[in-house]
Design brief:
Two copies of one chain form a homodimer. Helix content of chain A is about 45%, strand content about 20%. Chain A has about 170 residues and is of the alpha/beta class.
Chain lengths: ~170, ~170
Amino acid sequence: MTEYVPLAAQVHRELLGRGATLAVAESLTGGLLAAQLVDVPGASATFRGSVTAYATELKAELLGVDEGLLAVHGPVHPLVARQMAEGVRRLLGATYGLSTTGVAGPEPQDGSPVGTVHLGFAGPEGTLAGSPRLSGDRATIRRRAAQGALELFLAHTAAARKAAGAG
Amino acid sequence: MTEYVPLAAQVHRELLGRGATLAVAESLTGGLLAAQLVDVPGASATFRGSVTAYATELKAELLGVDEGLLAVHGPVHPLVARQMAEGVRRLLGATYGLSTTGVAGPEPQDGSPVGTVHLGFAGPEGTLAGSPRLSGDRATIRRRAAQGALELFLAHTAAARKAAGAG
């Protein structure tokens, strides 16, 4: 029997084991990712906090996303996700940063169809993005995007642990 | 028959009518308040974004809450709620700011019992705090605190409208 552990609790465990902390920057998920992380008992040991940069210009002003990038590609782009993750990691003084940007619908946005989602990960070793294509209604896409960000964190940190020979 | 309109949608309407915007700073609700505001279709017209300052020092570093106040009273205090609301309003360039701080449990914190909650409101006309005493488990207290913040906004803006003779 494998014990069922919610994704957010798995992230909390992984961070505890590393003596590390996490901060998140949200756009389409707007608070859902933070709410899942705060739900874990003892969250304050590993969760620093979050920024919901719902207005596009806040992605630049607060999180330091390149304005030229936003002007050319709009907020729904893998590089924006990476810069949001790196920006919130720096702004909140955390070891790792996670981010979400995308189109929850019901309407397409900036030429991207509903369900386009980019997730960002940032850590001491650099940044990367994951770009799942999600389906469902607005609420479902937002919930799956938050879940995807937690999965991205776990996949990357597990891979790093294996590469280091500790897993 | 009175039409049922969720609190967050009522807040959105009130803001639209004023040509105003809102930003929120969350502690114990950690994303729940932002998530409710983003849930409203067309939210981007009135909702700027949010900061979850879960780590106490972020309340000072990011939101400008007075460090002496935090040192003397801890993060669960009406003045902290007011300064969080004013700080996020300024940081995110919004007309109004709303905030939550308190003890969701299961353990008391800094001498405050579970269910102690302070909600902050900030606008062009100044700041105020509401301090409901909430009961229930951790999830219930967090949900009621988010609801309380929306009610505080509506109560205050409706009162201001009546005082101005427009309601």
